[in-house]
Specification:
The structure is a homodimer of 445-residue chains.
Chain A (H helix, E strand, L loop, with lengths): L1 H7 L3 E5 L8 H11 L5 E5 L5 E2 L2 E2 L13 E4 L6 H11 L3 E4 L10 H14 L2 E3 L5 E4 L4 E4 L6 E8 L2 H13 L4 E6 L8 H10 L5 E5 L6 H10 L4 E4 L5 H11 L6 H11 L2 E3 L2 H13 L7 E6 L2 H13 L3 E2 L4 H10 L10 E2 L6 H11 L7 E6 L6 H11 L3 E2 L1 E3 L3 H13 L4 E2 L2 H11 L8
Parallel strand pairs in A: 1-2, 1-5, 5-6, 6-7, 10-11, 10-12, 12-13, 13-14, 15-16, 15-17, 15-18, 18-19, 18-20, 20-21
Antiparallel strand pairs in A: 3-4, 8-9, 8-11
Helix pairs in contact in A: 3-4, 7-9, 10-16, 11-16, 13-14, 14-15
Amino acid sequence: MSQLSCLFEAKSLAVVGASNNPSKYGNIVLSNILEGGYKGVVYPVNPKEALVLGLKSYPSLSDIPDDVELAVIIVKNHMVPDVMEEAGKKGVKSAIIISGGFSEAGEKALQEKVVEIIKKYKIRMVGPNCQGVNYTPNKMCATWPLIKQEGKMAIISQSGSVGAELGKQAENEGIGVSAIVSLGNKADVNELDLLEYFDQDKNTGAIALYLEAVSNGKAFLNMAARLKKPVVILKPGKTEAGQKAANTHTNSITGKREVFEGVCRQYGLINTDNLGEFYDCAKLLSMTKKLRGKKIQLVSSSGGGAVLACDAIVEENMELAMISEDRCRKLKAKYPQHFTVGNPFDLTGDANPALYKEIMLELSKEEGIDVFMPIVGDPIRGVAEAFLEVRELIDQEIVVCFFGGAEVQVEETMKMHKQGLPVFPSPYRAVKAIAQTFQKKSSIN
Amino acid sequence: MSQLSCLFEAKSLAVVGASNNPSKYGNIVLSNILEGGYKGVVYPVNPKEALVLGLKSYPSLSDIPDDVELAVIIVKNHMVPDVMEEAGKKGVKSAIIISGGFSEAGEKALQEKVVEIIKKYKIRMVGPNCQGVNYTPNKMCATWPLIKQEGKMAIISQSGSVGAELGKQAENEGIGVSAIVSLGNKADVNELDLLEYFDQDKNTGAIALYLEAVSNGKAFLNMAARLKKPVVILKPGKTEAGQKAANTHTNSITGKREVFEGVCRQYGLINTDNLGEFYDCAKLLSMTKKLRGKKIQLVSSSGGGAVLACDAIVEENMELAMISEDRCRKLKAKYPQHFTVGNPFDLTGDANPALYKEIMLELSKEEGIDVFMPIVGDPIRGVAEAFLEVRELIDQEIVVCFFGGAEVQVEETMKMHKQGLPVFPSPYRAVKAIAQTFQKKSSIN
């Protein structure tokens, strides 16, 4: 862990290749670091400018009068070795090389030269050919897009686009991330270093890993055995065409799929099949405790939502909880005839926050319920408060499904997400995420 | 068709049960009709108010001095027969009964009474127990949520929540809808009437149908055989639990699943498995011509996106197009070495709108490409214009995949959707929608 804290916890950083041209990544990255509210000190480096984005610009790293812990490098590929040599002499401890044009483009010698330099100076490096690093607890968005909201999800991605997409979704939904790391060519820091770091990072609850090629199969297996936090994986290349494309993309061998999948199964790493599942599972695990069982109780305002959820529960090998006959009788006597008492429990268009709360509290006394899934299929204001109150009073986990609620849905979902209560926008996605993550490792025990 | 035009094309409507209390549906519906910019004349009916939402309120339908074509009814269930009797005498031609408390709540006699009245007066009625009707070409949003944007997708739903969700997604994405009809108890107007209407409606390109129970199996089969426009269906109840929940929800028998699925297969109706697929297929069909074949060419800024798309193409039984060796040689000579020439065609981080356009135009000369799927995995401004220009110049269909582009992605996606070019937010969803709709009926031939 300590080895990479010089990267994530850096108290000062220089952006080498900082630019005033808004179409350049040297501008976008510096701008995101500043707008993100980075906790440390920032030094733009650009010999052609006096000021970059309003900050004094230094001609080179060595011209900076103070210590620099981290160098973020966005210059032409052939300039990188010189910059890194200078960084070493300056005492820089970590680097993020965003510049491309290394082994992925056939320039292996150039990459090896860089690796030699970082070894000489004991610099830890992410990249080259990566999309940067975001660590929200340090407000350090040395990447794009700008993502500021802190959350419990750490994203490690061998595709810049995939990392950016997951992070942005998490922010848009009010969930946030602890980190996004774009792996790039993995010439130094690789998925193993990062899995180890985030497994111990107190700001991280679950890890999402998009990986095209495993750096070291045996080491990955050993790491998988040691990990304590839940890890959700998307590893494309399931088909021959996909594998071929992955080999071309990363210029590496992706390895035997069956072996990888066997390791995941054995150690409880969650393998997903597409971007949607990948996000949903990482989201659920960054917000929930380990589910104690697979019996789900539905309480719905929408008949259609309840029907769709029943199908999903059966098809995904979860179970509909059974309510005792005694309680059914009691509830049937209490509520209007057009309510459906049972599972699904259908409140119909009469549903309101107080009713959801009342019924969930009553049902929570049942032994046979592991998870409550309230389904809100209408624009019902105030359900967030109701579900958050219920969560404090019951032992069962709550996973909310909200759809058909337009603007009210967006507002209520944000409120729940900010309090760590997961909300999914369709019955299928809610059930699928529960089923995929059920009985795996869990962050908050 | 003419029979239901009295509903969709109504030039005047009364909201019986209009209310000044913002928590009542009688307020929400009237407010949406007014905010939606309804083309006709609106009459609130409420005996206790002089004004509702600033409009003169009438004590009853018969007090309205002018003709009323459509009555939207949101009053207590036991008042509905009297209101309908009055509507009949007034010469009202169509009704939307939002009020619940009929056969779904065990009040069969009450529903039968209403049906007798509408038969006597030849009124066409949607509901009871429904969430209303939206027909955007008439700017008539007699439902919730408020959805104004015109599009080519007509939504028929036996769940108010499902209809609302689909419509809102379509508006949020800049696609819009032609209609949303909540079927409710289907005491008069049912899915057959509506399929027939929208199949002929010039404002509709594709129909999305959420159905828990088929009203008349034989009639449905005959209708399926006659339909010319593409129909996408979500029919839950695949499992016993789902079927049981559906029977309870609609208080009707859902029918044999195998028979229904057979009919769909035979007549090219597209059966989907969950809300996400349902929306994606309806969206694609409301925007595209029939695909001429299943050979897809990928042009990507994201290596990861390209890999994910390859897997999806193979797994969904689509095909990666093959580029001729001649053209490959030519393109390899023209572009930098780090571009991957082939399929996927990887433009790497160098991707820009002009490059996408240039390469798609060059590749469009190939015989073996049916569909272009440009994948944008970065915040690249201007791709919308580029793809829209290319569309005018080539014969192949374009289905865009855009992810990892944050705010730029939202802006560019809206631009493309408003021009009828479909964009999906993940490779899997784009490919899956193509695969599910491939070789089915098509709206724009």
